[in-house]
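User: Quick sanity check before I run a bigger batch. Here is a single chain. Can you write out its predicted 3D structure?
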Amino acid sequence: MKKINILTASLAMLVFASLNVSAQIKLSDIFKKITEKQGTTTAATGTPSTFEIGQGIKEALQIGVSAGADRLSLKDGFLGNLAVKILMPPEAQKVEKTLRGIGLNKLCDNVIVSLNRAAEDAATEAKPIFISAIKQMTLTDATNILLGNKDAATEYFKRVTTAQLMQKFSPIVTTSLNKVNATKYYSDLTTQYNRLPLVKPVNTNLTEYVTQKAIDGLFVEVAKEELKIRGNLNSRSTTLLQKVFGYADRKKI
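Assistant: Done. Predicted structure follows.
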């Protein structure tokens, strides 16, 4: 009987010790998680250094411009997006209205589809130009963008990339216009119109028109991405982005 009592006591002590160790381990895990969470929160809400601001802005803009350029370079990237869809050149809109009025809808549609296809081809070349501009950005540029207007990054890109984009896009658009028969369709359209009595002949530099509209469309998408990361907390996917843009939020209050 005495032996049984001793054995029972020993087992009880072992169980208690085991539970105690287990409890300590669980408490340790909980404490570790709390500490890590506090550390992450502090890292995400502290005041960023100038270097961190530069890195954060570059990271954010690289994500944004890549997403925007990728969307536009897909089939229907321009054609299926009402915000950037390329319509007839202004001087040809009267032509379109007249020809649609006499049943030549297909001819007009062919022109519009082909103009947008050419822009989608050109958009594939935009990303490297934007990325290069981001890499060359100074810390002053980055700080001005972070604490500037909601379109400060877009305006920066317009200033430093427009000339390059025009130069790069122009030959691509020319090739694309021919590849998708845009030049032929537009020639057919204007020829049909110019045959009508008492109309003023229409001439358009399609390459220049589509190139400019393609660049305008890119900046529309860049602006959309910029607004997203400034205003949508879920778009700040890293601790650095949370810290940098959280700091900007606090400065603007």
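Residues 7-19, 21-28, 30-42 have pLDDT under 50 and may be disordered.

User: Great, the batch can go ahead then.
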